[in-house]
Design goal:
The protein is built from twelve helices and twelve strands. The protein is of the alpha/beta class. The longest helix has 28 residues. Pfam families: AIRC, ATP-grasp, PurK_C.
Length: about 350
């Protein structure tokens, strides 16, 4: 299982994020410390290991719980094998299940008592009612007969396609997004080195609009605005972007430079230029060194770049996947209609009636 991160309120676990939004180096360190701690103990089953991450990037062992733990409740909805099932498999000597997350991101929010008596129950039930209107949210109420301040009364798990999404849903649950108009988070970005690339790159934007995918479009030059490019690429994932379409002509360094600064998939669009008709752009994009992958399309074919981005997003979005399938079916239907007309009319009449300039 991947490391989790959590926040505490008055020394009580309040929010758990999975996977932890910490550098990979720290994840490996936390995992190593946890494994060493468990190996020093005897027993079978699930062990919860709690560590503190210090400001100087040290992982300090706080406690080990030889049982399913509150911090692992999100596994019920977010993982292929929950901590409870895994615990039973382990102590019964059965094959262990897959602990991987089946949702890209999850947040577990502990319902802590806000007040005593009836007032506390009313506040908790209001929170639950809001949760029932949030996509990807599951409520677990423990049915404890008494409520006290800071007592764990239940928990709410929210799963979604990204940590940005589940955090936005948590803000909605806690009514932290009531001020000002709601902003739609862009899932894709269309960037280009110059406004002269826009006549080509607009085709990618049109495809994203066709599939109702929120996106941002801007100019980011690898050569003229390197600091802007650096900041843009480094912040892209944190801002909730899931894929970047980058158009560039000539030396075409933009797609590769962006790909070297982010773990998001980058699709490069070679832009046609007068000097070498876009072949220099294409070769620059496809000749990336090992370890820095950049997808690409035909010279000037930003439409296909948009479609490729849509397919990437659809791989974990059922509704979008249905729209992609519908799009594919429409393409097939249009070709079949043309084939039928050509066969019925013959080539000469088809040219005259269907392909007039």
């Amino acid at each position: 299982m991947k490391p989790l991160s959590g926040t505490f309120r008055d020394n009580i676990c309040h929010v758990v994020e999975a996977p932890a939004q910490i550098p990979e180096k720290m994840k490996k360190l936390a995992t190593s410390v946890a494994e060493k701690a468990i190996k020093s103990l005897e027993g079978a089953g699930v062990f919860a290991v709690e560590l503190f991450l210090t400001n100087d990037n040290q992982a300090l062992l706080n406690e080990v719980a030889p049982r399913p733990h509150n911090s692992g409740h999100h596994t019920i909805e977010a993982c292929y094998t929950s901590q409870y099932e895994q615990h039973l498999r382990a102590i019964l000597g059965l094959p262990l299940g897959d602990p991987a997350m089946k949702a890209p991101a999850a947040i577990m929010y502990n319902i802590l008592g806000e007040d005593e008596g009836d007032s506390g129950f009313v506040l908790a039930h209001q929170l639950i009612k809001r949760a029932l209107n949030i996509p990807g949210a599951s409520v677990h109420w423990y049915a404890k007969p008494e409520i006290r301040k800071q007592r764990k009364m239940g928990h709410i798990t929210i799963v979604g396609p990204s940590m940005f999404d589940v955090k936005a849903h948590l803000d909605r649950l806690l009514q932290r997004d009531t001020d000002g108009p709601k902003k739609v988070r862009p899932r894709a970005a269309v960037i280009m080195g110059s406004d002269s690339d826009l006549p080509i790159m607009k085709d990618a934007a049109a495809i994203l609009e066709k599939f109702n995918i929120p996106f941002e479009l801007t100019i980011v030059s690898a050569h003229r605005t390197p600091e802007r490019m650096y900041a843009y690429a480094l912040s892209a994932k944190e801002r909730g972007l899931e894929v970047i379409i980058a158009g560039a002509g000539g030396a075409a360094h933009l797609p590769g430079m962006v790909a070297s600064l982010t773990t998001l998939p980058v699709i490069g669009v070679p832009i046609w230029t007068k000097s070498l008709q876009g072949t220099d752009s294409l070769l620059s994009i496809v000749q990336m060194p090992k370890g820095i992958p950049v997808a690409t399309v035909a010279i000037g074919n930003a439409e296909n770049a948009g479609l490729l981005a849509v397919r990437m997003l659809a791989s974990r979005d059922t509704e979008l996947s249905d729209r992609v399938n519908e799009y594919q079916q429409n393409l097939e239907d249009s070709v079949l209609v043309k084939a039928r007309l050509l066969e019925e009319l013959g080539w000469d009449k088809y040219l005259e009636q269907c392909m007039k300039p």
